[in-house]
Structures are given as structure tokens and as C-alpha cells.
Design goal:
Layout: H1 2-23, E1 27-33, H2 40-59, E2 68-74, H3 79-91, E3 97-99, H4 104-117, E4 121-123, E5 138-140, H5 145-158, E6 163-169, H6 172-188, E7 191-198, H7 206-215, E8 219-223, H8 228-238, E9 244-247, H9 254-260, H10 262-265, E10 269-273, H11 288-302, H12 308-325, H13 331-339, E11 343-345, E12 350-352, E13 366-372, E14 375-378
Parallel strand pairs: 1-2, 1-3, 3-4, 4-5, 6-7, 6-8, 8-9
Antiparallel strand pairs: 10-13, 11-12, 13-14
Helix pairs in contact: 2-12, 3-4, 5-6, 8-9, 12-13
């Protein structure tokens, strides 16, 4: 009898030890960000934010007793490199989820890898085609570009600006925005009097803007990410164009104002995530405290204010972490957990993922802001 109890005791001890070892197994998460290159204004704050959140989580014992092991690679904004690094994260590092990439082009290139390998990918890029149509393993945290386009056109309607000119960048982000703007403008009764395109590497857009000026639009909508929109803003000032200018959410950071100069950017409007104006929000706003805390923590760690772009990685991590807190451990369980997470307050907005919506944000994700004396004000 004693021998039997001894065997049972040893067996229980081994089981408990195995259970403890299992519980302590790290959760491996990957990050793909354009930390260097022309899109570094996106990737650097995304990388910083993810590192900050993982450090904070691990300092508290991890999630459900398991530490987070983080693998981050710099894509340089290159789609081919992003695909190679995605494969490395999955096959070498054995991650159960990937946050990123930073840009639409990279994300579209990596999607087939995530789908084939069945690893949840939470993109930090805005292009609508990333999640529309829905892909089983792919999610995104920036609001879809059609939401930003609608926000702009609603404001133009209020100001009775019916004749509009478009100037969009020729990359994936710009092409997607151009497509959404044209479709939505047609539905809402706008007339597009000029439709110009520029290359991401162009350093002077006065030829396109000269054509736009001749078309005499009521408003100009520029769609791109820096430095292009900043150059366009300066060119508009140089050409003496007084027409109302709207920028996309792709430049919703103070870096844009710095590059364009406050004088040239004066009066420009754009849809921006609430982080840009968190100090102007009512205390009752569900995002107000989270945004303030995120900005405080980021500034304490990196010496600069948090940006909307870093917020995309913040939300990506929180979506994955929320699934893990509810018991998800495998890639499939994390995917299911993100999709069934319910309502989650994030930096980019209030998320409500569903099997038919892997973005989960609506018009409430943006505030329309105007640049006044080098700063944002909320447009009422």
C-alpha cells in the first residue's frame, strides 16, 4: 500500500512539474515593421510600442503566467523582404501570431504566407483590400481607407464643395484610396474635375498641381504618406492655390506638419485617429484615458509623443493578448479569439471584430481635424 501511495505521489509530482513547465512556456509573437527606409515613420513607433507593451506585460509575469518572447524584424518597407521575414518568423522562430507589416504593399505580399501557414496576421496598414474580402487568418488595426474617405467627403458636403480634385500616390495605399474616393464620390454626387497621380519618389508635384489649379476645384484631396503629401502642401503654397486641401489619415502625425511647415499646412483638414487630439477629448470618451496613458508611457520611454501609427501596433498586441488571456495558446485559438473578442477599446478606435469584418472599426475611429498654427484642432 505504501509503495502504491509512493508511486501515486511521484506521478502527481511529475504531473504538477509538467503542468508548471507547460504553463511557463513562452508565447512567441512576431513583429514585421518598416523600421528603416521611407516608411520608417510608421515602423519605428510600431516597433517601439510593441517592445514597450511586451516589456510591461513580462514585468507583470506575462499573460496567464507565460512570458512573451518577441521576435521583431525590419522589412525596410520592402514587400519581398517582408515575405522572407514572415517565413522566418513562422518556420524558424515558431511564432503563433504576427503583428505588422507597416504598409499595405507589404501586407498584401505577406497575406498568402499567413493563409498558407495558418498563422494570424494583424496588419498595421490601412488598405481596405487587406481584409476585404475577408481572409480567415488576416486582421488589421487601422480603420479601412474607405472610412477615412467617407469622413473627408462628409466634411466636403457640409461645406458644399462638390467639384473635387484628386492627387494620389501610385503605391498600394494611394491606389486603394483613389479607388475608394472615386467610388464614394460618385455615390454622393461629387464631380471629380481632376485626377492626378504622383510617384512615391517624386520631389516636385507642381506639374500635376498646375493642372489641378486650372480645373478650379472646390477642394483638393491628397492621398499618400510622407514625404509626398508634405511636398504637395509646399507646392500648393508656392503656386498660390487657395483651395481647401484635405489630406488622408496617412499623414496624421506632427511629422507631416514639420515636413510641410506650419505655414504651408495652415487650414488643411484630415481625418485623424483620436490619439492626435486626446487632450481635446471629453473625459467621458471611452478612449480618453487609454490614449492619455499610452502617450504618457511612450513619452517616458522614448522621449517623444506617441503617434497614431504606433497605436496600430498597440492595438495589434492587445487583440492578440486578449485572446491569450481567454485561454488561447495555439495559432488557431488566437485567430478564433481575435475574431470573437467582442468590444475592445483601443488606440485606433473601438473594435468589434466579426467573422465578416476583420477590421471592426467605423466612422467613430476618426476625428476630422484642422491644422491651426502648427497644431490640431477638432472640426465641429
Amino acid at each position: 500500500m505504501r509503495k502504491m501511495f509512493a508511486v501515486i505521489g511521484i506521478t502527481m509530482l511529475l504531473l504538477c512539474s509538467a503542468s508548471a513547465a507547460f504553463a511557463a512556456a513562452p508565447i512567441k509573437i512576431g513583429g514585421l515593421f518598416a523600421v528603416t527606409g521611407p516608411a520608417s515613420f510608421l515602423g519605428e513607433p510600431e516597433k517601439n510600442t510593441l517592445e514597450l507593451l511586451v516589456k510591461e506585460a513580462n514585468a507583470k509575469g506575462g499573460i496567464n503566467g507565460s512570458k512573451i518572447e518577441l521576435f521583431i524584424y525590419d522589412t525596410g518597407g520592402d514587400a519581398t523582404k517582408a515575405v522572407q521575414l514572415a517565413n522566418k518568423l513562422i518556420k524558424n522562430d515558431k511564432v503563433v501570431a504576427i503583428i505588422g507589416p507597416s504598409t499595405t504593399g507589404e501586407s498584401m505580399a505577406v497575406i498568402p504566407v499567413a493563409e498558407k501557414e495558418q498563422i494570424p496576421l494583424v496588419s498595421c496598414a490601412a488598405g481596405i483590400k487587406i481584409t476585404d474580402p475577408v481572409k480567415k487568418w488576416v486582421f488589421k488595426t487601422p480603420a479601412n481607407d474607405h472610412v477615412a474617405a467617407e469622413k473627408i467627403l462628409i466634411q466636403a458636403e457640409k461645406l458644399k464643395q462638390k467639384n473635387i480634385a484628386l492627387i494620389t500616390v501610385s503605391d498600394s495605399f494611394g491606389s486603394s484610396g483613389r479607388e475608394q474616393l472615386k467610388q464614394m464620390a460618385a455615390k454622393r454626387g461629387f464631380k471629380i474635375v481632376a485626377d492626378e497621380v504622383y510617384s512615391p519618389k517624386d520631389t516636385d508635384m507642381t506639374p500635376q498641381l498646375t493642372k489641378i489649379k486650372a480645373a478650379k476645384p472646390d477642394a483638393i484631396i491628397c492621398w499618400g504618406t510622407n514625404p509626398g503629401p508634405a511636398i504637395i502642401t509646399r507646392n500648393i503654397q508656392q503656386l498660390g492655390i487657395k483651395t481647401q486641401v484635405y489630406q488622408s489619415h496617412g499623414v496624421a502625425s506632427k511629422k507631416y506638419i514639420e515636413l510641410a511647415t506650419a505655414q504651408a499646412a495652415e487650414g488643411i483638414m484630415l481625418p485623424a485617429g483620436k490619439l492626435a487630439v486626446f487632450d481635446l477629448l471629453k473625459p467621458s470618451d471611452p478612449q480618453a484615458k487609454l490614449l492619455k496613458d499610452y502617450n504618457t508611457d511612450y513619452k517616458k520611454s522614448y522621449g517623444v509623443e506617441a503617434s497614431t501609427f504606433g497605436g496600430y501596433a498597440y492595438d495589434g498586441f492587445q487583440l492578440v493578448a486578449a485572446a491569450i488571456r481567454k485561454g488561447a495558446a495555439t495559432a488557431a485559438q488566437i485567430r478564433d479569439g481575435i475574431e470573437k473578442n467582442g468590444r475592445m477599446v483601443g488606440v485606433s478606435g473601438i473594435f468589434k471584430m466579426t467573422p465578416t469584418d476583420h477590421n471592426g472599426l467605423d466612422l467613430g475611429a476618426f476625428e476630422m481635424v484642422r491644422i491651426v498654427k502648427g497644431d490640431w484642432v477638432i472640426v465641429k
